[in-house]
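ok so for the tutorial part 2 we go from a plain amino acid sequence to predicted structure tokens. step 1 is just haveing the sequence, like this:
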Amino acid sequence: MLSFATIWDSFYEFFESNLWPLILAISVVVIAIVMIKVICLIMNKILLKSGVDGTAVSFYLAITKLTLWVITIFVIASILSISTSSLLVGFSSIALAVALALKDSLANLANGIIIIFNKPFRRGDHIEVDGAEGKIINIKLLTSEIISADNKRIIVPNSKMVNCTITNFTSLPTRRLTLAFTVAYESDLDKVEKVLNEVVKADKRVLSKPKSKIFLANHGESSLEYSVRVWVNTSDYWDVNYDLPRKVFDAFKENNITIPFNQLDIHMINDNKDGDK
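step 2 — the prediction. this is what the tokens look like for a chain of 277 residues:
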């Protein structure tokens, strides 16, 4: 059995014979920490100035950090006279084990690369994917982050972002807004259509092309339903969606156009055979 003195002598001989390589290796680690931070800062500025989508910047930086640290490990191994071929074999074995254990994570990583190059969305786009809806704020190595309208952070695996249907609400400059308005059956339809056209044309946010469409869409149980389809800039979509119904209501009221509500008519039948007494 080895004594403490023997073990200590072995450690002492190792550090004595490898003192300068160890100091050099530690220096390389310190320098690598500083240099990797500096390189990433410079790279971040260059990518942002070059117009690269902000969602891709963090992904590129993560890949760069990983690559630089792998290079640093091989430099340290060379300084400490560790066989790089043995290191490669060790890395390969570890990589295989990790690949088998984390196959889903690696799939997410691969899908993250697909997202970056295909660019189905950009930072700030409002999207819906796999039941999650909100503004995309980041794409990481394994996941993408969405902020919902009520300020909840939603983390979606990148595999979902690639394999599921994505609806991008803001990628195009314009959108069509469809609204429904009801009027009473006894209404003057020409007057109704005229009022709706006036309200639409008065709103400067409604685009002249493509042309707006106003038509009688449905004969309801107690009302006639008009469909109003207008085109707006994507940035104006929700404002017009909130404002136009109020403007139509005021215009209908001003022009004495009845907006019906559900009513129930009750007919009383006098079945008194004996007559009134």
